[in-house]
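User: Could you check the structure of this?
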Amino acid sequence: MILRIRLKKDYKASLEQVIKIVLARVRHLRYIEFDREFDYRVHDYLEKNYSKSYSKRWTVGDTIVAVFVHEEFVFRTSSNQTITVIYESAISQQKSRITVIASGGGQGLLGMDWGSQSAAEDTLERRIREMTTGRNASRY
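Assistant: Sure, the predicted structure tokens are below.
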């Protein structure tokens, strides 16, 4: 499935439209919020570990948006899955947000993912929580 969407000049309205379209078609989606003081650390981590297939960063007004797409082979399903990470940080806000979308990774007629998509999201969330709180993420 390929989504082709053009962002209008009104960035906020267009981003909300994109999210509505994606939510209607994606089963696995997770939001992670963290303090802006960790922006550089989180962005560097994503750039090093989650940009295997695609990476792009741009600034719109006072908001920095970055998209990272990572593809990996999952042994439990013997297939590839992608992890798409959308990073948003606005100077006027105290929190930054990451949207994590795991897709693919299913096998067979029913497309069973055997938990691989949730596991990929859990791994990223745990790592972000460790970086931004300084605590072991097993407490979450």
